[in-house]
Design goal:
Helix content is 32%, strand content 22%. It is an alpha+beta fold. 55% of the residues are buried. GO terms for molecular function: hydrolase activity, hydrolyzing O-glycosyl compounds.
């Protein structure tokens, strides 16, 4: 297997500062992600932090150069001269290391969104340590708060001996050791930092919103970089995986951990908004919310990795949302209804418009939520856990709702505007009722409606066989009467849907029509609008392996691994099959969890 998503990956490039950014933008694969269980930072390979929502994942961004290259907020520590970069995460950690080499010297940048020995800090603390390794390296430093799409005008004030910056209701400090000196200004703090061999400097931001601001010492901040690294390594050491690709497995599980919003237990789909699925196209969405589908799949991935505390927190959050808000497609990280879409007046990544906050999926219905919730409950129980009576009753009512609703059209797994009898949606309803029956037989659910669930399960299977199979295509089609294909049908193998021969033929048809190099498009007809969906390829790998086609599965896995071997192990939602460029929001939970599940199946381990 290639080195994809391993703990040591390097970008090695010699270039001028300007040539790193085409039209002001970095390639998405040039970003690494930092996190503290509350928010996520995107740090570019040229030393520029281009995205950070403070204090939470779904807060307005303090740094937004990702979407506004000229006027967006950023925190840069970039060599003045042409430089080469070697970059990697520290082993089994979400602490990021970058080594810059210029004609005059080498320096190491170590970055962390810090935590403490007791877990997440009650404030946001972004720490950047710069160390001289050889000779001298001169860096240009700029800390420029964002303007919230011109909705806030940043300014500084002197409070005691501290220069405090204000952006709306966010209050922050830019702290640094004596080797860097600059005077604060409202728009930005700028200066030069020259690092000699053996020299060590720390630059940091401490921030909060609507709360008193803690002023830690730089020595403590510096120490917490190592504490954070130690805590990440301790957590990763408990990950259960005994396959040959442990480093790759852990890298994806660590990426998923970044998306777990610890104040509530919610799992964000991604850490960004409006990064386009196709450059210059309109498919730019806000993924800083918790989808039932993504949460369910991620919980399963956490259980697979033995991260039972994270899985339990996320599952409890999911059940509480169902009780409070009903069966919505997605929720805010705090558990509320996702707001409708608002467009923001910033240029967007590579001028891709519109830039959005909010998501239209909040008002959709997708039958897939039934299958996702019951698959999560089934996996939770299969790992030796027990459902409480209130949760069991709630799930029982959900099974009743599924038994009544499955004949209706819905928006489907891909959240499409056209409501249809999507085949995958019907399979998800079959999956929900199949798991409900199994849970009832195990004593985890009330058995009052067990026989009714079983009868509806069988009716759904018969309906799919009668209406969704195409003899001409030799495949299950997107929806009855269509000749289109849907790559998500690969998940039917994981769900245990009957019909091995037909599922194998469906996979072959998907490969033939939706395959593009090592990747796959989501469904027929989208190649002109977006890139290939990374998770779909891993779902295909998993399905092949589950069907006993191990050689084909491993060959496909190696191919996509080589294609993804472009950065430090952070995956986006999509990739351009022609150029290899990453597309879509990042880090993308669905891509990483599909990678985890594919690796798990290839290792011959059980689901738990």
């Amino acid at each position: 297997m290639s080195g994809v998503l391993a703990t040591l990956q390097s970008l090695v490039r010699s270039s001028s500062r300007a040539s790193w950014r085409r039209d002001g933008y970095l390639e998405l694969e040039d970003y690494g992600a930092l996190g503290d269980g509350r928010s996520v930072v995107l740090s570019g390979a040229d030393g520029s932090i281009d995205w950070w929502c403070v204090p939470n994942l779904d807060s307005p961004p303090l740094f937004d150069r990702l979407l506004d290259p000229e006027e967006g907020g950023r925190f840069t520590i970039t060599p003045d001269d042409a430089f080469e970069v070697e970059r990697c995460y520290l082993p089994d950690s979400n602490v990021l290391q970058t080594i810059f080499t210029t004609a005059n010297g080498r320096a190491r940048l170590t970055e962390s969104l810090n935590s403490g020995t007791a877990g997440r800090l009650p404030w946001a603390e972004l720490a950047r340590r710069v160390e001289g390794l050889e000779g001298r390296v001169s860096f240009s430093v700029e800390m420029r708060p964002g303007r919230r799409a011109n909705g806030a005008s940043p300014y500084h004030s002197q409070i005691g001996k501290h220069a405090v910056f204000h952006v709306g209701s966010v209050l922050g400090l830019f702290l640094h050791t004596d080797g860097f000196a600059a005077r604060p200004a409202d728009e930005a703090i700028k200066g030069i930092l020259t690092i000699a061999q053996g020299q060590r400097e720390v630059l940091a931001i401490v921030a909060g919103e609507g709360e008193p601001l803690v002023v830690p010492s730089l020595a403590d901040i510096d120490d917490r970089i190592d504490v954070s690294d130690s805590e990440w390594r301790a957590w990763a050491s408990r990950v259960e995986y005994d396959g040959e690709h442990r480093s790759a497995f852990i890298r994806s599980v660590l990426a998923l951990k970044l998306l777990l919003y610890s104040p509530s237990g919610a799992i964000a789909a991604a850490a960004t908004t409006s990064v386009p699925e196709g450059i210059s196209g309109p498919k730019n969405y806000d993924y800083r919310y918790a989808w039932i589908r993504d949460a369910g799949y991620t919980i399963k991935a956490f259980l697979t990795a033995g991260a039972h505390a994270e899985a339990k927190a996320a599952f409890t959050w999911l059940l509480k949302r169902l009780d409070e808000q009903g069966t919505r497609v997605c929720y805010t990280l705090g558990g509320e209804r996702v707001p409708g879409v608002t467009e923001i007046e910033v240029p967007g990544y590579r001028q891709s418009q519109p830039v959005r906050i909010g998501n239209v999926a909040t008002d959709q219905h997708q039958h897939g939520i039934y299958g996702d919730i019951f698959e999560t409950a089934s996996c939770f129980v299969a790992c030796g856990n027990i459902l409480d009576p209130a949760s069991a009753e709630q799930l029982s009512h959900l099974a009743d709702a599924c038994a009544d609703a499955w004949r209706k059209k819905d928006a489907g797994i891909w959240e499409l505007e056209e409501r249809q009898h999507y085949t995958m949606s019907k399979i998800s309803c079959w999956q929900a009722l199949a798991r409900a029956v199994e849970l009832a037989d195990e004593g985890q659910l009330p058995t009052t409606c067990r026989d009714r669930w079983a009868r509806e399960r069988d009716r759904i299977a018969d309906w799919i066989e009668e209406n969704c199979w195409s003899e001409g295509r030799q495949a299950f089609v997107f929806y009855p009467g269509s000749d289109k294909l849907d790559a998500s049908l690969a998940l039917a193998v994981r769900f245990g849907f009957d019909g091995r021969d037909k599922l194998e033929k469906t996979l072959d048809a998907i490969d033939a029509e939706l395959g593009a190099g090592p990747y796959h498009y989501r469904y027929s007809g989208v190649a002109a609008e977006e890139g290939c969906f990374i998770a779909c390829t891993f779902w295909m790998v998993e399905a092949r392996a589950l069907l006993g086609q191990r050689d084909r599965a491993e060959k496909a896995f190696i191919a996509v691994s080589h294609a993804l071997d472009r950065g430090v192990g952070i995956m986006t939602e999509m990739a351009d099959p022609k150029t290899g460029a990453f597309l879509g929001n990042l880090p993308q939970g669905l891509s990483h969890l599909a990678h985890v599940m594919a690796l798990d199946v290839l290792s011959h381990r059980d689901a738990c």
